[in-house]
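Board notes (copied after class):
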Amino acid sequence: MGERSLLPVKIFFFCIIILLSIVFFTGCMTNTVKSNTSDIIQTSKTPQSITTQSPVYTAISAGGGHNLALRQDGTVLAWGDVSHKEIIEVPENLKDIVSISAGDQYSLAMKRDGTIFFWGRPDPSDQIPTLTNVSKTVDITALSSGCGHVLALKKDGTVITRGTNRVGALDPPANLTNVIAISAGCYHSLALKADGTVVGWGAQEGRYVAYGQAYVPSNLTDVIAISAGLQHSLALKKDGTIVAWGGNENGQTDVPTTLTDVIAISAGARHNLALKKDGTVIAWGQNNFNQSHVPEGLRDVKAISAGGASSLALKKDGTIVAWGAVGNP
Protein backbone atom coordinates (compact mmCIF):
# COMPACT_ATOMS: atom_id res chain seq x y z
CA MET A 1 0.00 0.00 0.00
CA GLY A 2 1.22 3.53 -0.75
CA GLU A 3 1.84 6.34 1.75
CA ARG A 4 -1.34 8.12 0.63
CA SER A 5 -3.50 5.02 1.28
CA LEU A 6 -2.12 4.74 4.85
CA LEU A 7 -2.94 8.36 5.72
CA PRO A 8 -6.60 7.76 6.76
CA VAL A 9 -5.50 4.89 9.00
CA LYS A 10 -2.87 7.05 10.69
CA ILE A 11 -5.38 9.84 11.23
CA PHE A 12 -7.87 7.35 12.73
CA PHE A 13 -5.37 5.96 15.26
CA PHE A 14 -4.12 9.46 16.08
CA CYS A 15 -7.68 10.53 16.94
CA ILE A 16 -8.17 7.42 19.11
CA ILE A 17 -4.98 8.20 21.06
CA ILE A 18 -6.05 11.81 21.61
CA LEU A 19 -9.51 10.73 22.77
CA LEU A 20 -8.11 8.17 25.23
CA SER A 21 -5.68 10.76 26.58
CA ILE A 22 -8.50 13.20 27.23
CA VAL A 23 -10.57 10.54 29.02
CA PHE A 24 -7.59 9.45 31.12
CA PHE A 25 -6.64 13.01 32.02
CA THR A 26 -10.21 13.89 32.95
CA GLY A 27 -10.43 10.81 35.15
CA CYS A 28 -7.22 11.76 36.94
CA MET A 29 -8.49 15.27 37.55
CA THR A 30 -11.75 13.91 38.91
CA ASN A 31 -9.92 11.64 41.31
CA THR A 32 -7.91 14.54 42.65
CA VAL A 33 -10.99 16.52 43.66
CA LYS A 34 -13.45 13.88 44.79
CA SER A 35 -13.34 12.19 48.15
CA ASN A 36 -14.72 8.75 48.88
CA THR A 37 -18.35 9.82 49.14
CA SER A 38 -20.72 11.49 46.71
CA ASP A 39 -21.71 13.96 49.42
CA ILE A 40 -18.35 15.75 49.49
CA ILE A 41 -16.12 17.38 46.91
CA GLN A 42 -12.51 18.32 47.68
CA THR A 43 -11.78 21.84 46.50
CA SER A 44 -8.66 22.12 44.38
CA LYS A 45 -7.67 25.63 45.50
CA THR A 46 -7.54 24.85 49.21
CA PRO A 47 -6.57 21.18 49.78
CA GLN A 48 -7.86 21.17 53.35
CA SER A 49 -11.24 22.64 52.44
CA ILE A 50 -14.20 20.53 51.36
CA THR A 51 -17.64 21.45 50.12
CA THR A 52 -20.73 19.27 50.04
CA GLN A 53 -22.27 18.49 46.69
CA SER A 54 -25.55 16.85 47.72
CA PRO A 55 -27.91 16.35 49.47
CA VAL A 56 -29.19 19.32 51.49
CA TYR A 57 -28.00 19.59 55.11
CA THR A 58 -29.74 21.29 58.02
CA ALA A 59 -27.23 21.09 60.91
CA ILE A 60 -23.52 20.58 61.59
CA SER A 61 -21.40 19.65 64.60
CA ALA A 62 -17.59 19.48 64.80
CA GLY A 63 -16.07 17.18 67.43
CA GLY A 64 -12.61 16.46 68.74
CA GLY A 65 -11.46 14.55 65.66
CA HIS A 66 -14.64 13.92 63.70
CA ASN A 67 -17.60 15.81 62.29
CA LEU A 68 -21.35 15.30 61.97
CA ALA A 69 -23.85 16.65 59.48
CA LEU A 70 -27.62 16.23 59.56
CA ARG A 71 -29.27 15.69 56.21
CA GLN A 72 -32.66 17.14 55.35
CA ASP A 73 -34.13 13.64 55.30
CA GLY A 74 -33.24 13.10 58.97
CA THR A 75 -30.20 10.89 58.42
CA VAL A 76 -26.67 11.61 59.64
CA LEU A 77 -23.27 11.79 57.94
CA ALA A 78 -20.14 11.27 60.06
CA TRP A 79 -16.53 11.58 58.97
CA GLY A 80 -13.06 12.27 60.35
CA ASP A 81 -10.78 10.16 62.55
CA VAL A 82 -10.56 6.74 60.90
CA SER A 83 -8.27 5.28 63.57
CA HIS A 84 -11.36 4.46 65.63
CA LYS A 85 -14.10 3.38 63.23
CA GLU A 86 -16.70 3.20 65.97
CA ILE A 87 -16.59 7.00 66.16
CA ILE A 88 -17.60 7.61 62.55
CA GLU A 89 -19.77 4.55 61.93
CA VAL A 90 -23.32 5.86 62.26
CA PRO A 91 -25.74 3.25 63.70
CA GLU A 92 -27.74 1.40 61.07
CA ASN A 93 -31.26 2.63 60.38
CA LEU A 94 -30.63 5.88 62.27
CA LYS A 95 -33.27 8.23 60.89
CA ASP A 96 -35.82 10.87 61.82
CA ILE A 97 -33.03 12.80 63.60
CA VAL A 98 -33.57 16.45 64.53
CA SER A 99 -30.45 17.23 66.59
CA ILE A 100 -26.78 16.14 66.55
CA SER A 101 -23.81 16.71 68.84
CA ALA A 102 -20.21 15.59 68.28
CA GLY A 103 -18.05 15.07 71.37
CA ASP A 104 -14.38 14.28 71.66
CA GLN A 105 -14.59 10.61 70.62
CA TYR A 106 -18.32 9.99 70.53
CA SER A 107 -21.54 11.30 69.02
CA LEU A 108 -25.12 11.88 70.09
CA ALA A 109 -28.23 12.21 67.95
CA MET A 110 -31.79 12.94 69.04
CA LYS A 111 -34.85 11.74 67.17
CA ARG A 112 -38.03 13.69 66.66
CA ASP A 113 -39.71 11.70 69.43
CA GLY A 114 -36.95 12.67 71.90
CA THR A 115 -35.06 9.37 71.80
CA ILE A 116 -31.28 9.83 72.06
CA PHE A 117 -28.73 7.62 70.29
CA PHE A 118 -25.08 7.23 71.29
CA TRP A 119 -22.14 5.83 69.34
CA GLY A 120 -18.36 6.01 69.59
CA ARG A 121 -16.04 5.51 72.53
CA PRO A 122 -17.86 5.99 75.86
CA ASP A 123 -16.38 7.94 78.74
CA PRO A 124 -14.45 5.95 81.38
CA SER A 125 -17.44 6.00 83.71
CA ASP A 126 -19.70 4.77 80.90
CA GLN A 127 -22.37 7.27 81.96
CA ILE A 128 -22.98 9.14 78.72
CA PRO A 129 -24.82 6.23 77.05
CA THR A 130 -27.34 6.28 79.92
CA LEU A 131 -28.85 9.40 78.35
CA THR A 132 -30.61 7.02 75.98
CA ASN A 133 -32.64 5.83 78.96
CA VAL A 134 -33.23 9.29 80.43
CA SER A 135 -34.64 10.60 77.17
CA LYS A 136 -37.49 8.09 77.32
CA THR A 137 -39.04 9.81 80.34
CA VAL A 138 -37.71 13.39 80.23
CA ASP A 139 -38.35 16.14 77.66
CA ILE A 140 -34.87 17.14 76.42
CA THR A 141 -34.63 20.12 74.08
CA ALA A 142 -30.87 20.43 73.52
CA LEU A 143 -27.62 18.45 73.86
CA SER A 144 -24.02 19.59 74.17
CA SER A 145 -21.07 17.18 74.10
CA GLY A 146 -17.70 17.87 75.71
CA CYS A 147 -14.56 15.76 76.02
CA GLY A 148 -15.89 13.30 78.56
CA HIS A 149 -19.20 14.76 79.65
CA VAL A 150 -22.55 15.79 78.20
CA LEU A 151 -25.09 18.45 79.10
CA ALA A 152 -28.78 17.99 78.34
CA LEU A 153 -31.23 20.87 78.60
CA LYS A 154 -34.70 19.94 79.78
CA LYS A 155 -37.88 21.61 78.64
CA ASP A 156 -38.39 23.02 82.15
CA GLY A 157 -35.10 24.97 81.98
CA THR A 158 -33.03 22.66 84.17
CA VAL A 159 -29.87 20.79 83.19
CA ILE A 160 -28.94 17.08 83.26
CA THR A 161 -25.26 16.08 83.28
CA ARG A 162 -23.70 12.74 82.37
CA GLY A 163 -20.17 11.43 81.89
CA THR A 164 -16.88 11.64 83.70
CA ASN A 165 -16.85 14.27 86.43
CA ARG A 166 -13.55 15.82 85.49
CA VAL A 167 -12.81 18.58 87.98
CA GLY A 168 -16.46 19.33 88.64
CA ALA A 169 -17.80 19.48 85.09
CA LEU A 170 -20.91 17.53 86.18
CA ASP A 171 -21.65 19.69 89.22
CA PRO A 172 -23.84 22.66 88.25
CA PRO A 173 -24.76 25.13 90.98
CA ALA A 174 -27.70 24.11 93.12
CA ASN A 175 -31.09 25.37 91.96
CA LEU A 176 -29.88 26.21 88.45
CA THR A 177 -33.09 27.05 86.58
CA ASN A 178 -34.42 29.18 83.72
CA VAL A 179 -31.65 27.91 81.42
CA ILE A 180 -32.19 28.49 77.70
CA ALA A 181 -28.84 27.31 76.27
CA ILE A 182 -25.96 25.03 77.29
CA SER A 183 -22.39 24.39 76.18
CA ALA A 184 -19.99 21.66 77.33
CA GLY A 185 -16.27 22.35 77.11
CA CYS A 186 -13.55 19.84 77.77
CA TYR A 187 -13.28 20.38 81.53
CA HIS A 188 -16.02 22.93 82.19
CA SER A 189 -19.65 23.74 81.43
CA LEU A 190 -21.65 26.86 80.64
CA ALA A 191 -25.36 27.66 80.94
CA LEU A 192 -27.17 30.72 79.58
CA LYS A 193 -30.14 31.88 81.61
CA ALA A 194 -33.25 33.60 80.31
CA ASP A 195 -32.19 36.88 81.94
CA GLY A 196 -29.05 37.07 79.76
CA THR A 197 -26.57 36.02 82.44
CA VAL A 198 -24.13 33.11 82.22
CA VAL A 199 -23.31 30.44 84.79
CA GLY A 200 -20.11 28.40 84.62
CA TRP A 201 -18.82 25.40 86.55
CA GLY A 202 -16.06 22.79 86.39
CA ALA A 203 -12.28 23.16 85.91
CA GLN A 204 -11.98 23.55 89.65
CA GLU A 205 -8.86 21.52 90.41
CA GLY A 206 -5.22 21.16 89.42
CA ARG A 207 -3.86 22.81 86.32
CA TYR A 208 -7.30 23.28 84.76
CA VAL A 209 -8.43 25.92 87.23
CA ALA A 210 -5.55 28.20 86.26
CA TYR A 211 -7.16 29.08 82.95
CA GLY A 212 -10.32 30.46 84.54
CA GLN A 213 -12.60 29.25 81.75
CA ALA A 214 -15.43 28.55 84.21
CA TYR A 215 -15.16 31.92 85.96
CA VAL A 216 -17.66 34.10 84.14
CA PRO A 217 -16.83 37.83 84.16
CA SER A 218 -18.86 39.44 86.93
CA ASN A 219 -20.27 42.24 84.78
CA LEU A 220 -21.33 40.04 81.85
CA THR A 221 -24.98 40.64 80.93
CA ASP A 222 -27.23 40.80 77.85
CA VAL A 223 -25.83 37.51 76.51
CA ILE A 224 -27.72 35.68 73.76
CA ALA A 225 -25.33 32.78 73.00
CA ILE A 226 -22.50 30.87 74.68
CA SER A 227 -19.79 28.44 73.60
CA ALA A 228 -17.24 26.51 75.68
CA GLY A 229 -13.87 25.45 74.24
CA LEU A 230 -11.03 23.36 75.59
CA GLN A 231 -9.72 25.94 78.06
CA HIS A 232 -11.66 29.07 77.16
CA SER A 233 -15.20 30.41 76.85
CA LEU A 234 -17.13 32.74 74.55
CA ALA A 235 -20.28 34.78 75.06
CA LEU A 236 -22.19 36.67 72.37
CA LYS A 237 -23.93 39.80 73.54
CA LYS A 238 -27.15 41.31 72.28
CA ASP A 239 -25.23 44.16 70.63
CA GLY A 240 -23.33 41.73 68.36
CA THR A 241 -20.03 41.82 70.25
CA ILE A 242 -18.12 38.91 71.80
CA VAL A 243 -16.66 38.49 75.26
CA ALA A 244 -13.97 35.82 75.73
CA TRP A 245 -12.19 34.53 78.83
CA GLY A 246 -9.95 31.66 79.92
CA GLY A 247 -6.79 30.21 78.39
CA ASN A 248 -5.11 32.30 75.71
CA GLU A 249 -1.96 30.41 74.72
CA ASN A 250 -3.03 30.48 71.06
CA GLY A 251 -4.76 33.84 71.06
CA GLN A 252 -8.20 32.26 71.33
CA THR A 253 -9.46 34.93 73.72
CA ASP A 254 -8.03 37.80 71.66
CA VAL A 255 -11.28 38.72 69.94
CA PRO A 256 -10.58 40.91 66.89
CA THR A 257 -11.14 44.49 68.00
CA THR A 258 -13.14 45.39 64.90
CA LEU A 259 -15.45 42.37 65.10
CA THR A 260 -19.09 43.46 65.32
CA ASP A 261 -22.50 42.46 63.95
CA VAL A 262 -21.99 38.85 65.09
CA ILE A 263 -25.04 36.57 65.18
CA ALA A 264 -23.45 33.22 66.14
CA ILE A 265 -20.29 31.92 67.83
CA SER A 266 -18.49 28.60 68.19
CA ALA A 267 -15.46 27.79 70.33
CA GLY A 268 -13.20 24.96 69.20
CA ALA A 269 -10.34 23.43 71.14
CA ARG A 270 -8.08 26.44 70.69
CA HIS A 271 -9.72 28.46 67.94
CA ASN A 272 -13.02 30.25 67.40
CA LEU A 273 -15.52 31.01 64.67
CA ALA A 274 -17.89 33.96 64.49
CA LEU A 275 -20.75 34.31 62.02
CA LYS A 276 -21.56 37.86 61.00
CA LYS A 277 -24.91 39.30 60.01
CA ASP A 278 -23.78 39.53 56.38
CA GLY A 279 -23.20 35.76 56.19
CA THR A 280 -19.41 35.86 56.37
CA VAL A 281 -17.23 34.01 58.88
CA ILE A 282 -14.34 35.29 61.02
CA ALA A 283 -11.86 32.92 62.69
CA TRP A 284 -9.02 33.41 65.16
CA GLY A 285 -6.81 31.40 67.49
CA GLN A 286 -4.74 28.30 66.76
CA ASN A 287 -4.09 27.70 63.07
CA ASN A 288 -1.76 24.69 62.92
CA PHE A 289 -4.15 22.85 60.59
CA ASN A 290 -5.53 25.95 58.86
CA GLN A 291 -8.64 25.72 61.04
CA SER A 292 -8.57 29.51 61.43
CA HIS A 293 -7.99 30.13 57.73
CA VAL A 294 -11.48 30.78 56.37
CA PRO A 295 -11.78 29.78 52.69
CA GLU A 296 -11.68 32.77 50.39
CA GLY A 297 -15.07 33.94 49.18
CA LEU A 298 -17.10 32.04 51.79
CA ARG A 299 -20.48 33.75 52.07
CA ASP A 300 -24.17 33.07 52.67
CA VAL A 301 -23.40 31.06 55.83
CA LYS A 302 -26.19 30.38 58.33
CA ALA A 303 -24.46 28.16 60.92
CA ILE A 304 -20.91 27.44 62.13
CA SER A 305 -19.16 24.82 64.26
CA ALA A 306 -15.55 24.71 65.50
CA GLY A 307 -14.00 21.40 66.56
CA GLY A 308 -10.66 20.11 67.77
CA ALA A 309 -8.79 21.31 64.69
CA SER A 310 -11.59 21.57 62.14
CA SER A 311 -14.11 24.21 61.15
CA LEU A 312 -17.53 23.77 59.54
CA ALA A 313 -19.87 26.26 57.89
CA LEU A 314 -23.42 25.48 56.78
CA LYS A 315 -24.56 27.67 53.91
CA LYS A 316 -28.08 28.90 53.27
CA ASP A 317 -28.40 26.59 50.27
CA GLY A 318 -27.87 23.56 52.53
CA THR A 319 -24.28 22.83 51.50
CA ILE A 320 -21.35 22.54 53.91
CA VAL A 321 -17.87 24.01 53.68
CA ALA A 322 -15.25 22.45 55.96
CA TRP A 323 -11.62 23.36 56.50
CA GLY A 324 -8.74 22.48 58.80
CA ALA A 325 -8.12 18.88 59.88
CA VAL A 326 -11.44 17.73 58.47
CA GLY A 327 -10.44 14.31 57.16
CA ASN A 328 -12.14 12.56 54.25
CA PRO A 329 -15.88 11.84 54.56
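Comment from the instructor: The first strand starts at residue 40 and ends at 42. Residues 39-324 form a domain with the Methylamine Dehydrogenase; Chain H fold (CATH 2.130.10.30).
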